[in-house]
Design a protein that fits this description.
The chain is of the alpha+beta class and 164 residues long. It has a single domain (5-163), classed as 2-C-methyl-D-erythritol 2,4-cyclodiphosphate synthase (60s Ribosomal Protein L30, Chain: A, 2-Layer Sandwich). It has helices at 46-58, 64-67, 70-74, 80-92, 116-127, and strands at 5-15, 25-27, 30-32, 96-106, 134-139, 152-163. It has a four-stranded mixed beta sheet with strand order 1-6-4-5. Strands 2-3 form a two-stranded antiparallel sheet. Helix 1 packs parallel to helix 4 (80-92). The longest helix is centred in the first third of the chain and has 13 residues, at 46-58. It is globular and about 50 Å long. The two termini are 14 Å apart. One of its GO terms (molecular function) is 2-C-methyl-D-erythritol 2,4-cyclodiphosphate synthase activity. Keywords: Isoprene biosynthesis, Lyase, Metal-binding. Pathway: Isoprenoid biosynthesis; isopentenyl diphosphate biosynthesis via DXP pathway; isopentenyl diphosphate from 1-deoxy-D-xylulose 5-phosphate: step 4/6. Its EC number is 4.6.1.12.
């Protein structure tokens, strides 16, 4: 018997680049102008990476690192939207659809709230769900972790899948 609901948790984190480059800071497919980029083999979009992991976790599957090598992420998959598209293809073969997504970020910088709506809309569009089904919260962490001290960004994503 197929369960009516499945929940997945995905996590990702990246440090900020030590030396500025031409790379862009991307969060949820949204460009943050004038901010340091995150280090990574791809665009290091922690939201889309954690979302990939959450979808696969909910399906009882493995995470991003199992499916993609560093070489893969430097090529076509450098844009994390292409990685997420693969997770969506896997989801579409299952008896489930996304009912809800909850995103939580911890970072000292950048300020997330000014782009909260843009990120929610972009994620909803990528998943083909209503923006009201995507929540996004962010906190600074009160200087308790490396992320809270401005060294990078930490992201958790929870996904609720429901049978079609």
């Amino acid at each position: 018997m197929t369960p009516s609901f499945r929940i997945g948790l995905g996590v990702d984190s990246h440090a900020f680049e030590k030396n500025p480059s031409a790379r862009k800071l991307m969060l949820g497919g949204v460009h943050f102008t004038g901010e340091r980029a995150l280090e990574g083999d791809s665009d290091a979009d922690v939201i889309l990476h954690a979302l990939f992991n959450a979808i696969h976790s909910a399906l009882g599957d493995r995470g991003l690192g199992f499916y993609f090598s560093k070489k893969d992420m430097a090529g076509e998959l450098a844009d994390s939207k292409n990685m997420l598209a693969r997770a969506i293809q896997t989801l579409e073969k299952s008896p489930y659809h996304i009912a809800n997504v909850s995103i939580t970020l911890e970072c000292l910088t950048p300020r997330i709230e000014p782009k909260n709506g843009d990120i929610r809309k972009r994620v909803a569009g990528l998943l083909n769900i209503d923006v009201s089904c995507v929540g996004l919260t962010a906190g600074t962490g009160d200087h308790l972790t490396a992320f809270a001290n401005g060294e990078g960004i930490y992201c958790q994503v929870m996904v609720l899948l429901q049978t079609r």
